[in-house]
Specification:
247 residues; alpha+beta; Aminopeptidase; 2 domains; eight-stranded mixed β-sheet; three-stranded antiparallel β-sheet; 8 helices; globular
């Protein structure tokens, strides 16, 4: 298990790579509002310390903030990276537990050993073919396109091609020595052909050229195919987390 500070820093990098429409900093807690994006873009990162006697007050203040914006909070709960006892406080307040996610890391040097098996294209910004492939798997979302436009750090958008058509996509965001991997999807008809491995390899090569020594990603723990893909590529679990949802 890595240090809590490293886990926190990676989660905060991930938040910058998936920027909410508004972020309020409240004593180390990141209150993120993204009402039109995927729900996880607007989750609370409760990274600031809070004594047991303070926890309930901090939760109520967070609830008030979200209510003032017509929303309800969803907390990202990471053992050792958020205040001890927060999960229990939220459970007592009838927050439901939601999802289980693995935060994984790999060395870029290990990842670049995996040579691409397909033709690949890299762009600095999302192209329409890239986004349309993402949409084909995840559904229509103009808000996601707008979210990508808010990313400030250097980024790469990789597209694996089969017969010159996009088969899989992913993106990476470089941030202070690390590169995060996001938006990995493969079209159903293209699965099992090395498209996702090609995307990962291309993003690792880009990360190496952008002074990132390590990569990280977040994957749901019940997503067996993705877990196997990342394990074969060289990723290993660092920490796990789940959510508590007031909705």
């Amino acid at each position: 298990m890595e240090s809590a500070e490293l886990v926190k820093s990676l989660q905060e990098r991930a938040a910058r790579a998936q920027p909410a429409e508004r972020v309020e900093h409240a004593g180390g807690w990141f209150l993120r509002l993204a009402p039109r994006c995927s729900w996880w873009v607007g989750t609370v990162l409760p990274h600031g310390d809070a004594d047991p006697d303070e926890l309930l007050r901090r939760v109520v203040e967070t609830e008030d903030f979200y209510a003032a914006h017509g929303a309800v909070p969803c907390f990202q709960i990471t053992p050792r990276a958020c205040p001890e006892g927060l999960d229990a406080v939220l459970e007592k307040r009838r927050y439901r537990r939601r999802g289980s996610v693995s935060l994984q890391t790999a060395s870029v040097a290990r990842l670049v050993e995996n040579a691409p098996t397909l033709k690949v294209r890299l762009d600095e910004r999302p192209t329409r073919p890239w986004f349309e492939t993402w949409q084909a798997v995840n559904g229509e979302s103009r808000a996601e396109w707008e979210m990508l436009a808010r990313v400030e750090s250097p980024s790469a958008y990789a597209s694996a091609l089969i017969c010159d058509e996009v088969a899989a996509v992913g993106r990476a965001v470089a941030d202070t020595g690390w590169a995060g991997v996001f938006s990995m999807v493969t079209l159903p008809r293209s699965r099992g052909k090395g498209a996702a491995r090609t995307v990962l390899s291309a993003l690792a090569g880009w990360a190496a050229a952008n002074t990132a020594d390590h990569m990280y990603l977040q994957v749901e723990r019940d997503n067996g195919p993705a877990l196997r893909l990342y394990e074969r590529a060289g990723f290993a679990g660092m920490s796990t987390y789940h959510y508590r949802d007031a909705g």
